[in-house]
Protein backbone atom coordinates (compact mmCIF):
# COMPACT_ATOMS: atom_id res chain seq x y z
CA UNK A 1 0.00 0.00 0.00
CA UNK A 2 1.11 3.58 -0.64
CA UNK A 3 1.16 6.44 1.79
CA UNK A 4 -2.03 7.65 3.47
CA UNK A 5 -1.03 11.29 4.02
CA UNK A 6 -3.60 12.47 1.50
CA UNK A 7 -6.15 11.02 -0.88
CA UNK A 8 -7.55 12.13 -4.20
CA UNK A 9 -11.28 12.07 -4.72
CA UNK A 10 -11.93 8.81 -6.60
CA UNK A 11 -13.91 10.48 -9.36
CA UNK A 12 -11.04 12.88 -10.03
CA UNK A 13 -8.15 10.40 -9.83
CA UNK A 14 -5.59 10.86 -12.57
CA UNK A 15 -6.12 8.83 -15.71
CA UNK A 16 -3.62 6.05 -16.42
CA UNK A 17 -0.52 7.25 -18.26
CA UNK A 18 -0.88 7.52 -22.03
CA UNK A 19 0.62 4.47 -23.83
CA UNK A 20 4.37 4.44 -24.40
CA UNK A 21 5.40 6.22 -27.56
CA UNK A 22 2.85 9.00 -27.16
CA UNK A 23 4.45 12.44 -27.36
CA UNK A 24 3.51 15.38 -25.17
CA UNK A 25 5.46 17.79 -27.39
CA UNK A 26 3.23 20.01 -29.51
CA UNK A 27 4.38 22.10 -32.45
CA UNK A 28 7.70 20.29 -32.90
CA UNK A 29 7.86 21.73 -36.42
CA UNK A 30 8.53 25.12 -34.83
CA UNK A 31 11.90 23.87 -33.51
CA UNK A 32 13.57 23.97 -36.92
CA UNK A 33 16.58 26.08 -35.91
CA UNK A 34 17.29 23.92 -32.88
CA UNK A 35 16.97 20.69 -34.85
CA UNK A 36 19.15 22.06 -37.65
CA UNK A 37 21.86 22.89 -35.11
CA UNK A 38 21.65 19.38 -33.62
CA UNK A 39 21.86 17.89 -37.10
CA UNK A 40 24.95 19.93 -37.97
CA UNK A 41 26.52 18.87 -34.68
CA UNK A 42 25.72 15.20 -35.33
CA UNK A 43 27.24 15.45 -38.82
CA UNK A 44 30.45 17.01 -37.54
CA UNK A 45 29.75 20.25 -39.38
CA UNK A 46 29.45 22.45 -36.29
CA UNK A 47 32.49 23.75 -34.47
CA UNK A 48 30.48 25.46 -31.74
CA UNK A 49 28.10 24.09 -29.14
CA UNK A 50 24.36 23.71 -29.40
CA UNK A 51 23.04 25.71 -26.45
CA UNK A 52 19.78 25.63 -24.55
CA UNK A 53 18.79 28.17 -21.90
CA UNK A 54 15.86 27.40 -19.61
CA UNK A 55 14.33 30.19 -17.52
CA UNK A 56 11.90 29.19 -14.81
CA UNK A 57 10.91 28.82 -11.18
CA UNK A 58 12.01 26.37 -8.47
CA UNK A 59 11.49 23.37 -10.76
CA UNK A 60 14.29 24.79 -12.92
CA UNK A 61 16.36 26.23 -10.07
CA UNK A 62 16.86 22.79 -8.54
CA UNK A 63 18.31 21.49 -11.82
CA UNK A 64 16.93 18.06 -10.90
CA UNK A 65 14.95 17.55 -14.12
CA UNK A 66 17.14 19.74 -16.33
CA UNK A 67 20.25 17.77 -15.35
CA UNK A 68 18.58 14.64 -16.75
CA UNK A 69 17.76 16.45 -19.99
CA UNK A 70 21.33 17.77 -20.13
CA UNK A 71 22.84 14.33 -19.71
CA UNK A 72 20.57 12.66 -22.26
CA UNK A 73 21.30 15.29 -24.91
CA UNK A 74 25.01 15.21 -24.16
CA UNK A 75 25.12 11.40 -24.33
CA UNK A 76 23.62 11.62 -27.81
CA UNK A 77 25.41 14.66 -29.24
CA UNK A 78 28.48 15.26 -27.06
CA UNK A 79 29.32 17.11 -23.85
CA UNK A 80 29.91 20.79 -24.58
CA UNK A 81 30.33 21.73 -20.93
CA UNK A 82 28.36 22.39 -17.78
CA UNK A 83 27.22 25.80 -19.00
CA UNK A 84 26.28 28.79 -16.88
CA UNK A 85 26.14 28.50 -13.09
CA UNK A 86 25.92 31.02 -10.28
CA UNK A 87 29.03 31.75 -8.24
CA UNK A 88 29.11 31.55 -4.44
CA UNK A 89 25.78 31.16 -2.66
CA UNK A 90 23.26 33.58 -4.20
CA UNK A 91 20.54 32.04 -2.06
CA UNK A 92 20.54 29.50 0.74
CA UNK A 93 19.30 26.49 -1.21
CA UNK A 94 21.28 27.09 -4.41
CA UNK A 95 22.86 23.72 -5.19
CA UNK A 96 22.71 22.49 -8.77
CA UNK A 97 23.92 19.24 -10.25
CA UNK A 98 27.63 18.92 -9.55
CA UNK A 99 27.90 22.52 -8.33
CA UNK A 100 28.64 23.51 -4.73
CA UNK A 101 29.52 27.03 -3.65
CA UNK A 102 29.86 29.35 -0.71
CA UNK A 103 30.93 32.88 0.15
CA UNK A 104 32.02 35.04 3.05
CA UNK A 105 29.53 37.40 4.62
CA UNK A 106 31.08 40.41 2.85
CA UNK A 107 29.37 39.19 -0.32
CA UNK A 108 25.62 39.72 -0.43
CA UNK A 109 23.02 38.62 -2.97
CA UNK A 110 21.35 41.31 -5.06
CA UNK A 111 18.21 40.76 -7.11
CA UNK A 112 16.56 44.08 -6.31
CA UNK A 113 13.33 44.14 -4.35
CA UNK A 114 9.74 44.37 -5.46
CA UNK A 115 7.48 47.09 -4.08
CA UNK A 116 3.89 47.44 -5.31
CA UNK A 117 4.68 45.15 -8.23
CA UNK A 118 7.68 47.21 -9.36
CA UNK A 119 11.37 46.44 -9.08
CA UNK A 120 13.48 48.73 -6.93
CA UNK A 121 16.96 48.43 -8.41
CA UNK A 122 18.74 48.75 -11.74
CA UNK A 123 17.51 45.38 -13.10
CA UNK A 124 21.04 44.22 -14.01
CA UNK A 125 21.50 40.91 -12.19
CA UNK A 126 22.91 38.58 -14.82
CA UNK A 127 21.50 35.66 -16.77
CA UNK A 128 19.71 34.05 -13.83
CA UNK A 129 18.56 37.31 -12.26
CA UNK A 130 20.40 37.07 -8.94
CA UNK A 131 23.91 38.53 -8.52
CA UNK A 132 26.29 38.74 -5.58
CA UNK A 133 28.24 41.89 -4.75
CA UNK A 134 30.77 43.30 -2.31
CA UNK A 135 32.79 46.46 -1.87
CA UNK A 136 35.19 45.45 0.90
CA UNK A 137 38.56 43.69 0.65
CA UNK A 138 38.59 40.10 1.84
CA UNK A 139 35.22 39.21 0.30
CA UNK A 140 35.45 35.75 -1.21
CA UNK A 141 33.05 33.61 -3.24
CA UNK A 142 33.85 30.13 -4.48
CA UNK A 143 32.31 27.36 -6.52
CA UNK A 144 33.38 23.74 -6.92
CA UNK A 145 32.33 22.06 -10.16
CA UNK A 146 32.52 18.28 -10.53
CA UNK A 147 31.98 18.32 -14.31
CA UNK A 148 35.10 18.84 -16.45
CA UNK A 149 35.70 22.23 -18.06
CA UNK A 150 38.52 23.51 -20.25
CA UNK A 151 37.47 27.15 -20.16
CA UNK A 152 36.09 29.18 -17.27
CA UNK A 153 34.42 32.49 -18.10
CA UNK A 154 33.59 35.00 -15.36
CA UNK A 155 30.44 37.05 -15.95
CA UNK A 156 30.18 40.40 -14.13
CA UNK A 157 28.94 43.99 -14.28
CA UNK A 158 31.09 46.78 -15.64
CA UNK A 159 30.24 50.12 -13.98
CA UNK A 160 31.76 53.55 -13.24
CA UNK A 161 32.54 52.74 -9.60
CA UNK A 162 33.56 49.15 -10.27
CA UNK A 163 36.42 47.55 -8.40
CA UNK A 164 38.75 44.67 -9.16
CA UNK A 165 38.43 40.98 -8.45
CA UNK A 166 41.13 38.31 -8.34
CA UNK A 167 40.34 35.01 -10.02
CA UNK A 168 41.82 31.95 -8.30
CA UNK A 169 41.43 28.57 -10.02
CA UNK A 170 42.41 25.44 -8.12
CA UNK A 171 44.31 27.51 -5.60
CA UNK A 172 46.39 29.42 -8.18
CA UNK A 173 45.72 33.03 -9.16
CA UNK A 174 44.73 33.04 -12.81
CA UNK A 175 44.31 36.78 -13.21
CA UNK A 176 42.73 40.01 -12.02
CA UNK A 177 39.61 41.54 -13.56
CA UNK A 178 38.96 45.28 -13.45
CA UNK A 179 35.22 46.04 -13.56
CA UNK A 180 35.44 49.83 -13.83
CA UNK A 181 34.01 51.30 -17.05
CA UNK A 182 32.42 54.59 -18.21
CA UNK A 183 28.90 53.13 -18.25
CA UNK A 184 27.19 49.96 -17.00
CA UNK A 185 27.33 46.89 -19.22
CA UNK A 186 28.03 43.17 -19.00
CA UNK A 187 31.62 42.01 -18.79
CA UNK A 188 33.03 38.60 -19.68
CA UNK A 189 36.57 37.33 -19.08
CA UNK A 190 37.66 33.80 -19.91
CA UNK A 191 40.48 31.59 -18.66
CA UNK A 192 41.77 28.45 -20.39
CA UNK A 193 42.32 25.54 -18.01
CA UNK A 194 42.98 21.81 -18.15
CA UNK A 195 39.91 19.77 -19.09
CA UNK A 196 39.01 18.62 -15.60
CA UNK A 197 36.83 19.50 -12.60
CA UNK A 198 37.80 22.80 -10.97
CA UNK A 199 37.28 25.06 -7.99
CA UNK A 200 36.96 28.74 -8.84
CA UNK A 201 37.30 31.46 -6.21
CA UNK A 202 36.69 35.17 -6.75
CA UNK A 203 38.23 37.64 -4.30
CA UNK A 204 37.27 41.30 -4.13
CA UNK A 205 40.35 43.55 -4.05
CA UNK A 206 38.50 46.35 -2.27
CA UNK A 207 39.18 49.22 -4.69
CA UNK A 208 35.47 49.54 -5.52
CA UNK A 209 32.28 47.54 -5.61
CA UNK A 210 32.07 44.35 -7.66
CA UNK A 211 28.88 42.66 -8.88
CA UNK A 212 29.31 39.07 -10.03
CA UNK A 213 26.78 37.15 -12.11
CA UNK A 214 28.34 33.70 -12.39
CA UNK A 215 30.56 31.38 -14.37
CA UNK A 216 30.23 29.85 -17.83
CA UNK A 217 31.96 26.46 -18.04
CA UNK A 218 32.88 25.26 -21.51
CA UNK A 219 34.91 22.53 -23.18
CA UNK A 220 37.01 22.64 -26.33
CA UNK A 221 35.01 19.89 -27.99
CA UNK A 222 31.63 20.85 -29.48
CA UNK A 223 28.54 19.40 -27.88
CA UNK A 224 25.32 20.32 -26.08
CA UNK A 225 25.14 22.86 -23.24
CA UNK A 226 22.02 23.45 -21.13
CA UNK A 227 21.81 26.40 -18.70
CA UNK A 228 19.25 26.03 -15.89
CA UNK A 229 18.41 29.66 -15.04
CA UNK A 230 15.69 29.30 -12.42
CA UNK A 231 14.75 31.24 -9.28
CA UNK A 232 12.65 29.89 -6.42
CA UNK A 233 9.23 31.54 -6.41
CA UNK A 234 9.65 33.13 -9.84
CA UNK A 235 6.75 33.97 -12.11
CA UNK A 236 6.82 35.00 -15.75
CA UNK A 237 6.71 38.62 -14.58
CA UNK A 238 10.03 38.17 -12.75
CA UNK A 239 12.30 38.57 -15.82
CA UNK A 240 10.01 41.29 -17.16
CA UNK A 241 11.12 43.47 -14.23
CA UNK A 242 14.75 43.21 -15.28
CA UNK A 243 16.41 45.79 -17.50
CA UNK A 244 15.61 44.60 -21.03
CA UNK A 245 18.88 45.83 -22.53
CA UNK A 246 20.82 43.94 -19.87
CA UNK A 247 18.68 40.81 -20.33
CA UNK A 248 19.28 40.92 -24.08
CA UNK A 249 23.01 41.45 -23.58
CA UNK A 250 23.23 38.41 -21.32
CA UNK A 251 21.11 36.18 -23.54
CA UNK A 252 22.89 37.18 -26.76
CA UNK A 253 26.20 36.31 -25.18
CA UNK A 254 24.98 32.79 -24.40
CA UNK A 255 23.80 32.53 -28.05
CA UNK A 256 21.18 29.83 -27.42
CA UNK A 257 19.69 27.69 -30.18
CA UNK A 258 16.67 26.98 -27.98
CA UNK A 259 15.14 29.12 -25.23
CA UNK A 260 12.76 27.36 -22.85
CA UNK A 261 10.36 29.25 -20.56
CA UNK A 262 9.22 27.09 -17.65
CA UNK A 263 6.82 29.13 -15.52
CA UNK A 264 3.26 28.63 -14.35
CA UNK A 265 3.31 26.88 -10.97
CA UNK A 266 3.52 30.06 -8.90
CA UNK A 267 0.93 31.78 -11.08
CA UNK A 268 -1.50 28.90 -10.54
CA UNK A 269 -1.25 29.16 -6.74
CA UNK A 270 -1.40 32.98 -6.75
CA UNK A 271 -4.87 34.10 -5.55
CA UNK A 272 -4.41 37.29 -7.58
CA UNK A 273 -3.97 35.42 -10.88
CA UNK A 274 -5.32 37.45 -13.82
CA UNK A 275 -5.31 35.20 -16.87
CA UNK A 276 -5.51 38.07 -19.35
CA UNK A 277 -2.54 39.77 -17.70
CA UNK A 278 -0.70 36.46 -17.56
CA UNK A 279 -1.18 36.00 -21.29
CA UNK A 280 0.12 39.50 -21.97
CA UNK A 281 3.13 38.89 -19.74
CA UNK A 282 4.18 35.62 -21.29
CA UNK A 283 3.72 37.10 -24.77
CA UNK A 284 5.90 40.07 -23.81
CA UNK A 285 8.63 37.84 -22.41
CA UNK A 286 8.67 35.80 -25.60
CA UNK A 287 8.94 39.11 -27.45
CA UNK A 288 11.99 40.07 -25.41
CA UNK A 289 13.57 36.72 -26.16
CA UNK A 290 12.88 37.12 -29.87
CA UNK A 291 14.36 40.61 -29.92
CA UNK A 292 17.49 39.40 -28.13
CA UNK A 293 18.07 36.18 -30.10
CA UNK A 294 15.80 36.27 -33.17
CA UNK A 295 17.15 33.06 -34.72
CA UNK A 296 16.66 30.88 -31.63
CA UNK A 297 13.82 28.38 -31.37
CA UNK A 298 11.46 28.77 -28.41
CA UNK A 299 9.50 26.35 -26.26
CA UNK A 300 7.01 26.81 -23.44
CA UNK A 301 7.45 24.05 -20.88
CA UNK A 302 4.11 23.62 -19.15
CA UNK A 303 4.23 23.28 -15.35
CA UNK A 304 3.98 19.93 -13.58
CA UNK A 305 0.66 18.99 -12.06
CA UNK A 306 -0.32 20.27 -8.60
CA UNK A 307 -3.26 19.60 -6.30
CA UNK A 308 -4.86 21.53 -3.45
CA UNK A 309 -6.71 20.53 -0.30
CA UNK A 310 -10.35 21.37 0.32
CA UNK A 311 -11.12 22.58 3.88
CA UNK A 312 -12.16 21.30 6.32
CA UNK A 313 -10.92 17.86 5.20
CA UNK A 314 -7.21 18.43 4.66
CA UNK A 315 -6.79 14.84 3.49
CA UNK A 316 -8.73 15.35 0.25
CA UNK A 317 -6.65 16.64 -2.66
CA UNK A 318 -8.28 18.03 -5.77
CA UNK A 319 -6.84 19.06 -9.14
CA UNK A 320 -6.05 22.76 -9.52
CA UNK A 321 -8.43 24.54 -11.88
CA UNK A 322 -6.12 27.60 -12.20
CA UNK A 323 -3.28 25.32 -13.29
CA UNK A 324 -5.39 23.99 -16.15
CA UNK A 325 -6.20 27.56 -17.17
CA UNK A 326 -2.53 28.54 -17.07
CA UNK A 327 -1.63 25.57 -19.27
CA UNK A 328 -4.37 26.50 -21.73
CA UNK A 329 -2.96 30.04 -21.98
CA UNK A 330 0.55 28.70 -22.57
CA UNK A 331 -0.67 26.39 -25.31
CA UNK A 332 -2.43 29.27 -27.11
CA UNK A 333 0.51 31.66 -26.75
CA UNK A 334 3.00 29.07 -27.95
CA UNK A 335 0.99 28.46 -31.10
CA UNK A 336 0.50 32.17 -31.79
CA UNK A 337 4.17 32.98 -31.15
CA UNK A 338 5.70 30.23 -33.28
CA UNK A 339 6.96 28.24 -30.27
CA UNK A 340 6.67 24.59 -29.33
CA UNK A 341 4.75 23.56 -26.21
CA UNK A 342 5.38 20.63 -23.88
CA UNK A 343 2.62 19.42 -21.54
CA UNK A 344 4.32 18.18 -18.35
CA UNK A 345 0.99 17.71 -16.59
CA UNK A 346 -0.15 15.28 -19.27
CA UNK A 347 3.23 13.53 -19.17
CA UNK A 348 2.66 12.90 -15.45
CA UNK A 349 -0.74 11.30 -16.09
CA UNK A 350 -3.05 14.32 -16.21
CA UNK A 351 -4.84 16.54 -13.70
CA UNK A 352 -4.66 15.07 -10.20
CA UNK A 353 -1.58 12.94 -10.85
CA UNK A 354 0.42 14.89 -8.27
CA UNK A 355 -1.69 13.43 -5.44
CA UNK A 356 -1.14 9.92 -6.77
CA UNK A 357 2.62 10.47 -7.02
CA UNK A 358 2.76 11.85 -3.45
CA UNK A 359 0.81 8.89 -2.03
CA UNK A 360 3.17 6.28 -3.49
CA UNK A 361 5.83 4.47 -1.52
CA UNK A 362 8.43 5.62 -2.36
CA UNK A 363 6.83 8.89 -3.48
CA UNK A 364 7.51 10.69 -6.75
CA UNK A 365 6.13 13.96 -5.34
CA UNK A 366 6.82 15.88 -2.16
CA UNK A 367 4.28 16.36 0.62
CA UNK A 368 3.45 19.91 -0.55
CA UNK A 369 1.98 18.35 -3.75
CA UNK A 370 3.71 21.12 -5.71
CA UNK A 371 7.28 19.85 -6.06
CA UNK A 372 8.54 16.43 -7.07
CA UNK A 373 11.07 14.14 -5.47
CA UNK A 374 14.35 13.38 -7.20
CA UNK A 375 12.85 10.30 -8.86
CA UNK A 376 9.81 12.31 -9.95
CA UNK A 377 11.90 15.03 -11.53
CA UNK A 378 14.05 12.36 -13.19
CA UNK A 379 10.92 10.87 -14.74
CA UNK A 380 9.55 14.12 -16.16
CA UNK A 381 13.02 15.13 -17.35
CA UNK A 382 13.45 11.79 -19.11
CA UNK A 383 10.02 12.11 -20.73
CA UNK A 384 10.78 15.62 -21.98
CA UNK A 385 14.21 14.71 -23.37
CA UNK A 386 12.82 11.56 -24.97
CA UNK A 387 10.09 13.50 -26.76
CA UNK A 388 12.60 16.12 -27.93
CA UNK A 389 14.85 13.40 -29.34
CA UNK A 390 11.94 11.61 -31.01
CA UNK A 391 10.86 14.85 -32.64
CA UNK A 392 14.43 15.50 -33.79
CA UNK A 393 14.66 12.00 -35.29
CA UNK A 394 11.36 12.52 -37.12
CA UNK A 395 12.59 15.89 -38.43
CA UNK A 396 15.87 14.34 -39.51
CA UNK A 397 14.11 11.46 -41.26
CA UNK A 398 11.84 13.86 -43.12
CA UNK A 399 14.79 15.99 -44.24
CA UNK A 400 16.64 12.88 -45.36
CA UNK A 401 13.69 11.66 -47.40
CA UNK A 402 13.22 15.11 -48.95
CA UNK A 403 16.86 15.18 -50.09
CA UNK A 404 16.65 11.81 -51.88
List keywords for this structure.
404 residues, alpha+beta, Rossmann fold, Jelly Rolls, 2 domains, six-stranded mixed β-sheet, 11 helices, 30% helix, disordered N terminus
Describe this structure in words.
The protein contains eleven helices and 20 strands. Helix 5 packs across helix 7. A hairpin with a 2-residue loop joins strand 18 and strand 19. It is an alpha+beta fold and 404 residues long. Strands 4, 5, 6, 9, 10, 11, 12, 13 and 14 form a nine-stranded antiparallel sheet that branches. A six-stranded mixed sheet has the order 2-20-17-16-3-15, with helices on both faces. A three-stranded mixed sheet has the order 1-19-18, covered by helices on one side. It folds into two domains: 264 residues, 3-Layer(aba) Sandwich (Rossmann fold), CATH 3.40.50.1110; 137 residues, Jelly Rolls (Sandwich). The protein is globular, with a radius of gyration of 22 Å.
Q: What is the CATH first-level class name of the largest domain?
A: Alpha Beta
CATH superfamily of the largest domain: SGNH hydrolase
Assigned CATH architecture of the largest domain: 3-Layer(aba) Sandwich
Please bin the fraction of helical residues.
25-40%
CATH topology of the largest domain, anyone?
Answer: Rossmann fold
What is the radius of gyration computed over CA atoms, rounded to a whole number of angstroms?
22 Å
Kindly name the structural category: alpha+beta
